[in-house]
Design brief:
By secondary structure, the chain is α/β, with parallel strands linked by helices. It has 2 domains: 239 residues, D-Maltodextrin-Binding Protein, domain 2, CATH 3.40.190.10; 236 residues, 3-Layer(aba) Sandwich (D-Maltodextrin-Binding Protein, domain 2). Helices cover 40% and strands 15% of the residues. It contains 20 helices and 17 strands. A 6-stranded mixed sheet has the order 1-3-2-4-16-5, with helices on both faces. The relative contact order is 0.17.
């Protein structure tokens, strides 16, 4: 399938042209510098003027128009799905606010830079490989599943996104959590920003039933606790115990009849590790080495609590199929665990419900929001004009941030009761705290699966010992590749 967007004539008025040129010339795209700035961002006077009282931003106006003479920016995408939105283009205006915002964004970009945008959905990995092998330069970038990226990087098919002139990773439309976690020696390969949507759709969240809270006299909601920095694993566990009940009195818990505290995906127990500000694998920048954290005190404490909560069949029923969604829609479960994009399947739910992140281990320690194996934007080494591509990606990301993001949030927060505004508020906070797992980045399936087994038995040390040598061997090649010096164009 190939989709081609036709340009229409439009007048696009740029603000502050002189300031735009200065901003572009100062941006080298070097992630060593941008990562340091991102840790303590300073809003310049120019940027402050681009933020209106209602929160509307105008970052796209900082990027100067360039005539690229009808060049086609082709995107190879593996992410098309009926349940989750991960496309970069739409075919036409339909009257749907989000669809039309995407269409209009692309029209503005095509008019401003005199380009065409095309997109295919028949295999981004093969498309990237073929483009590099043939040296055609026809693929501008590809959207690839997170766990498939490292193979392409190791085989020299991919250049860092940070190597493109014009890319400014300090801007708010680049995911701060991704930049911080996935930048190695200044190289940022795994790119997540407002260019696309899967790092939103892929947020692991808890949908919760407001009516079950009220019916069980639970006065402090997950929203209340989250905003007060008291949304913890213990609080969630207590709510699950209060709500769960054998409704038909047969002496056993059955997902077909009874009320449960939790159902849905357990996401291999990773979300609550991230929300507790830890991971199974971390990168030590000083030692330039990866660390396996099985025996870290926080990891073990979170593991023990998750075992008590999610492996207790009296209060929890983890499931990957649609049955868990139906149980939530029927009002028989308090917490439904799924990716944010599943909101599309809950539009017909009648009960009042909200959205919240997974809880943390301790109070007063706001945590990160885990992103489950989302799609990543990768640039092939066959890129013919890095400056052109960097300018277009930056412009497309900025325009999305300015003009599409609020529409997306309003479409995503779809509860029918008083929790709409609360969920929208939490969404905006959670989006600034996204976190990406290195196990998925590097395909460390054994590290994830062995953790699940270790927490069930409480045998973290023995699991770490079994994996130690294999882990060190597997990570050695990744360290060498990810930290190699790149010559920036």
């Amino acid at each position: 399938m190939k989709q081609i967007l036709k340009r229409t004539t439009a007048v696009f008025l740029l603000l502050s042209l002189l300031l735009s040129a200065a901003a572009c010339s100062e941006n080298s795209g070097n992630a060593d510098d941008t990562q340091a700035d991102a840790a303590d961002p300073a809003v310049t006077e120019t940027e402050f003027q681009l933020i209106e009282e209602d929160g509307t931003t105008h970052y796209a106006d900082l990027i100067e128009a360039v005539d690229y003479e009808g060049w086609t920016m082709h995107i190879a995408n593996d992410g098309l799905s009926s349940d989750y939105f991960s496309a970069f283009t739409v075919e036409e205006l339909t009257g749907d606010d989000f669809n039309d915002a995407i269409f209009n964004r692309n029209e503005r970009i095509m008019d401003k830079f005199n380009i065409e945008i095309t997109e295919t959905y028949d295999g981004s990995v093969s498309a990237l490989k073929n483009d590099v092998t043939a040296g055609t330069g026809e693929v501008a970038f590809g959207q690839v599943l997170f766990r498939s990226c490292m193979g392409l990087i190791l085989q020299d098919y991919i250049r860092p996104m940070s190597s493109l002139p014009g890319i400014d990773l300090t801007k708010p439309y680049w995911d701060k959590g991704s930049v911080e976690t996935l930048t190695f020696n200044g190289n940022y390969y795994f790119a997540h920003g407002d260019l696309g949507w899967d790092h939103y759709e892929g947020m692991a969240v808890l949908f919760y039933n407001g009516e079950l809270l009220s019916d069980n006299n639970i006065t402090e909601t997950p929203y209340d606790l989250y905003m007060d920095d008291r949304w913890t694993l213990d609080n969630m566990h207590e709510m699950m115990n209060i709500v769960s009940r054998d409704t038909n009195g047969d002496g056993k818990m059955d997902i077909k009849y009874d009320v449960f505290g939790f159902t849905g995906r357990d996401f291999e127990f990773l979300p609550s590790l991230h929300s507790s500000n830890t991971q199974l694998v971390t990168y030590d920048k000083d030692a330039e080495d990866f660390v396996l954290n099985y025996t870290d005190e926080t990891v073990m404490a979170v593991g023990d609590k998750l075992n008590a909560m999610l492996n207790d069949a009296n209060i929890s029923h983890p499931a990957w199929d649609s049955e868990s969604r139906n149980v939530f829609k029927e009002g028989r479960v308090l917490f439904y665990s799924r990716l944010l994009g599943d909101f599309r399947n809950l539009r017909d739910k009648e009960d009042d419900y909200g959205i919240v992140s997974f809880p943390t281990l301790n109070e007063n320690e706001p945590g990160r929001v885990y992103i489950q194996n989302c799609f990543t934007n990768l640039v092939p080494v066959s890129c013919e004009d890095p400056a052109r591509l960097g300018t277009l990606i930056e412009a497309m990301s900025a325009d999305t941030h300015d003009n599409v993001l609020n529409v997306y949030i309003n479409k995503a927060v779809i509860g029918k009761g008083v929790r709409d505004e609360q969920s929208a508020e939490l969404m905006r906070i959670m989006m600034t705290r996204r976190s990406y797992d290195l196990c998925y980045a590097f395909g460390l399936n054994s590290v994830i699966s062995n953790f699940g087994a270790a927490l069930k038995k409480g045998q973290y040390s023995s699991a770490a010992s079994r994996l130690k040598n294999v882990f060190k061997k597997d990570m050695g090649k990744n360290i060498e590749k990810l930290t190699e010096e790149w010559v920036y164009d």
